[in-house]
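Discussion board: Methods & Data

I've been asked by a reviewer to show the raw model output for two of the constructs in my manuscript, not just the figures. I'm not sure how much to include, so I'm pasting the format here to get opinions. Each protein appears as its amino acid sequence followed by a line of discrete structure tokens. Is this the kind of thing reviewers expect to see in a supplement, or should I convert it first? Here is construct A:
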Amino acid sequence: MSQDILINWSPQETRVAVVEQGAAQEVHLERTLERGLVGNIYLGKVSRVLPGMQSAFIDIGLDRAAFLHVADLMPNIAAKHAAPRAGAPTASESEAATQAPGANGKLLTPNPVLPIERQIFEGQALMVQVLKDPIGTKGARLTAQISIAGRLLVFLPQDNHIGVSQKIPPAQRDALRQRLLRLTATTDGSAAGGFILRTNAEDATDEELTDDTAYLRKTWLRIKEASTRQPSATLLHEDLNLMQRVLRDLVGADTHSIRIDSREQHGLLSAFAAEFMPDTVAKLQHYSGERPIFDLFNVDEDIVRALSRRVDLKSGGYLVIDQTEALTTVDVNTGGFVGARNFDDTVFRTNLEASQAIARQLRLRNLGGIVIVDFIDMVREDHRDSVLGEFRKQLARDRVKTMTGGFSQLGLLEMTRKRTRESLAHMLSEPCAACSGKGVVKTARSVCYDILREILREARAFNPREFRVVASAKVVELFLDEERAHLAGLSDFIGKPISLQSEGSMTQEQYDIVLL
């Protein structure tokens, strides 16, 4: 199915929409100030070695020095960037410090017999990669075991191990490993670096794997070349930005065009594509229209609707989508759709339309984990089979891996969708300040009764001259109108006056009782 990719760029944010059949199917965004450092590769400088902690602080040009533990060190690579000096580890010592690669293709913890102070020294240049972003007062966490992620493969330039994702069924791993060995071998038969086949490469073609291999090796050659001419504490390789990841991960044979609304970014992206992904250059277009690019397919309206619980269907039915930490639930309702023939036909048609809408909403909202769908109950077995078949057909268009079961005895459909990034709601919204994420607030009358009980408790513990209630305007209005008799009765009972003060900044559930 043909797709168009729209890129809306601004200095503070990049937004990408994948459009199919005239409607947005996926939305990706990246904000400049929120972009992390994980995956970036630096030529660092060892600023301090801590033998007691078997770790070191590395200057990579940030405000705070980054942290490197001996378990993340690869001494034979470190030696390549080190100037010889007395006490520096020999080649044989470096070789002895590294064990064989593990099943995931990463090198295991260096031999503890050789401590960190025998492997690196202060002032040494060292190529490192960020594992964790700086948090609070802590600097970034580093590793010297470099890995570069592609669309289908992960390249391990310092290791010759060939691995396959553990999430791929065991019966297929050996065949995929042998296939990858054949495709990644160099002209002289050597391996020239290790690779890990990612889960989404399970059904990749030889051509796709070969293209990814070429891209990764070219990237590593560029990093190595930069390390020979750049000074210490320099960024050698920045993990791809969103626009570059679009070319790597989203563009395929069915992509018709990639339109970007910035002339400058179009030029930069074209240069990147020409070097690493020449097949995508012809699809890149600069959009210079007067209308905002996302208005072409009403993408902004789709984003607003994707943040709502309710999704209206064209027939008059609707979905209710609730996202929690553990799972997402989708409830299908007929709403105003009454059908034209009979009730069974109405339910069947609503469920068919809902199956298409649900598959799209999962992609658009990027919902991951367990998903429970409550379709409207269907009596006929053929209707259930048709709805399930249509749902699976729509899910097959999703680039993220999904697994779907059948209908349970209660009529519920269970499925899973791999978590790849934060959902759209988590990226664009935060818990409501009024309800703290509950989705509901207490009624004004309930708050009035909470206040009356609180005043009674306070009157038993303290003996002020007066009680003053500070609350929202709606609660105060209720006390002055329908609840004035109850307020007056409590004042007589405790023998103290109770005054009211409206505070516009308070939410309906907030209040204070001031003792005067």
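Construct B, same format:
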Amino acid sequence: MFHRFVFANFFSSLIWCASPVFGHELAPIVITGHYDNSIGTSEAASQGVVGPELLRNRAIQRPADVLEYIPGMVVTQHSGDGKANQYFLRGMNLDHGTDFATTVNGVPVNMPTHAHGHGYSDLNFLIPELVQRMEYRKGPYFASEGDFSSAGSANFIYRTRLDKPFADVTIGPRGYLRGVAAASREVSEGVTLLTAIERLNNNGPWTVPEGMRKSNAQLILSGGSPREGWSTSLSAYSAHWNSTDQIPQRLIDVGTYQGQPFSRFDSLDPSAGANTHRTSLSGNWHQASNHGMTKVDWYAIKYNLNLFSNFTYSLDRPNDQFSQTDDRLVWGGKAYRSWLTDLGDGRSMQNTLGVQSRQDRIRVGLYETEARQIQSTVRDDDVHQTLVGIYGENEVGWNSWLRTVAGLRFDQFNAKVTSHVQAVNSGKANASKISPKISVIFGPWHKTEFFINAGKGFHSNDARGTTAKVDPKTGLPIDAVPGLVSSRGQELGIKSRILHDLQTTFAIWKLDFDSELVYVGDVGNTEAGRPSRRTGVEWSNHWTPGEHFLMDASFAWTRPQYSDNDPAGNGITNAVQKVANLTFALRNLGPWSGSLGVRYIGAAPLIEDNSFRSTSSLTTNLRINRRMSNAFDIAVDVLNLTDRKNNDIGYYYRSRVSGEPLAGVDGLHVHPAQPRTVRVTARLRF
């Protein structure tokens, strides 16, 4: 099914958001990226853009749900809604973000060496109403994409100005109340200030009210033109909540616990929960001409999280609650320079050289707690880590039907860990990776393009694992892990618009990892995973037969497995194998519009020998919108329209509740999806 690709000499680069139009004349570079998915705008069939029209079509439950517009991606939650979500793409349980890189206006969301999970990607600060577009890519084929991007990446780009100020108020059952207001104005000639604020209260369906309280603000100051311009952004986010962690299915089946009724929305530790804060200051500057472009992005982030969880209840001690704390400063940036060269005879070439740098200064801890009170310290570390990447890409339009994109990337990882509990786990580590890339694009012929992509990528590992010598809980010797781990991917794809109203893409892909090394934040050590291989097929369609109807449909099938042979089995736990997303939208029906979204998540192995699997889920969401006047809209969202008893996620592990054997009980643990929920939104435009 897949071909082997031989990498040639790579030396220069093309930044992904500046793909030129090849021909006899040199085209000006598009500095803000592709605005659509039309033929000639991609380097891979699995690359695309989600624009504002699609973003308005679906009812969503959480901010990160907008990632489900990416074909084959699904988003769930295994605990309180204030935590980073669970992400699944290309047969990977991405946990809270590992191997999927996310940025908002160029500012990274993923947190390396995070207290709760390496690559932790909390998108709860995202304000969907401000998103102008989302640009996504899959696979390690793009030289400008670095850490966490082996499975894919997404960049959310906010608007810098609004047509009109607006204020939204959404109400729903169980204490749901959300308000968001935004406006933009010209503060001086050519300079615009956009301001947005958001507040959310939500208790959810849980027996222990979630008590989610979120405050959010965004300021964007921008000026200049598409040729030369700049922007500066300030983002401030704060939230606190109570968590309803996953619970044993055996208690749900019995329906009682300690003589009291027990339901799927109950909790075994009412003191679980968290608070988090994130503030960032960022900016960018660009300058473009018909023959080149320069762009610079920079950012600084102050972040912290205090998280209290209990997944095993009383297996190790009378109360297994633990706390994870993360307090960090992050700063970094990226810059690139692109230039065009006319090769004559209708051929053009675009080169790009870029550099990226990020530094994290982290105080990260793991504690045994009870009712949010620290009982003992498992580990407490200061971590200083830096990742620097340089890359180059070269795109050549050989003729009207053939272009190539060749790239090379070099990344250097350095870390210093100071352990305040186990001094033996202190130390320094470094690692480096060279990642070549190649893409060949044929066409278009009859509005159809063919793609061949291959490349090496990587993900970093938790810095604490790179210097570890003893297990922080048991004191037993353990092996340190490498700082960077390689991945390799290949893809064959097609993108076609033979039918004027239908765009379809199809991709066959493969992704290999040398080792799925994972830092297990819940116990404070790093486990060396096995090598893995995933192969799959993706098919997505966007159909707009007229001004009144839109259909967006995507399907993904994946075969994930460990690539070595082990008696334990080759199944990768929680690796979803089948995913489907369908949206049917009616538009411009006088004052009415609406959409129906259907999401299917297939079963996944919960044990490596595949003897126990999760159940599949089917979720239907409905949105109906009525324009009451030029300044006032009413929207009704019905989430989980059919009120199915889905699980957001399931795990198979050992736990113990009161009255059970001291050794504990192996079994399924689930976090239920929310029941049918109706929310009403009123929007006022000024």
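Answer (T.O., handling editor elsewhere):
This is acceptable in a supplement if you add a one-line summary per construct. For B, something like: Helices lie at 52-55, 249-254, 463-467.
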